[in-house]
Amino acid sequence: MIAIVDCRIPEPSRKRLCELDAELISLPRADYLDTPVSAHPDMLMFMGWGKLFCHARYFEKNTALLQSIAQKCGLDICLSDEDTGANYPRDVLFNCVILGEHLLCNTKTVSRLILSEAQSRGMNIIHTNQGYTKCSVCRVSDNAIITADISIYTACKEHGIDALLVSADGVALSGYDCGFIGGATGTHGECVYFCGDISLHPDGGKIVEFCKNHGKLAVSLSSEGLYDIGSILFI
After folding, report:
1. For a surface tag, which of 1, 131, 152, 182 has the fewest beta carbons within 10 Å of its beta carbon?
2. pTM greater than 0.85 (yes/no)
3. CATH no. for residue 47?
4. Which domain holds residue 65?
């Protein structure tokens, strides 16, 4: 499996992923995003429908790397020239989640390229007021998510998607009061991987059980507290 990660992923989690035979691709920082999140995959790109969406500014400085990712994963590259920057909502162009036939996003802040692609494919667009949608969502399956955001929880429940609402505490992110549960996770195959030890989260037991109920094993990548690394994007 290929795992796309922030170049600053904590070493214990990096080591464990390598032990699990993951091929790690580390993303360099983007100078136009806030430093703590400047290499977060969920802030820099979105992959769906056989395409890799990213900003032209990031592509220009990391052309070889992004072309390599696209080639390895069989993806076409779609470049956005929309206004971007460190401040919300300019920083959340690619912060969205595909759940089966649904696209979960803030329709006011997500990239027009992604929204247009989803609409052209007849996807059901689920709007949420949370612009940091992917950051806030641990995708367990096409029909199950974990989140600490009530607007996401409510929107998913209204569309028949099982959702577990958890405490906003328990996830760290340097430079911020706290991180997001989605940013500390990544799902591949039968496993949901956590950057840190899920048992240290206030709702760790509920999270493990929820994953189990959806046929997934919760895997802790280290013995440390959960840390938001901008999601682990598995291919």
Report:
1. 1
2. yes
3. 3.75.10.10
4. 2-234
Residues belonging to the chain: 235
Contacts for 130-133: CB closer than 8 Å, 24+ residues apart: 130/106, 131/88, 131/89, 131/92, 131/95, 131/106, 132/88, 132/92, 132/95, 132/180, 133/92, 133/95, 133/96, 133/97, 133/104, 133/105, 133/106
Question: Max Cα separation, the chain?
Answer: 44
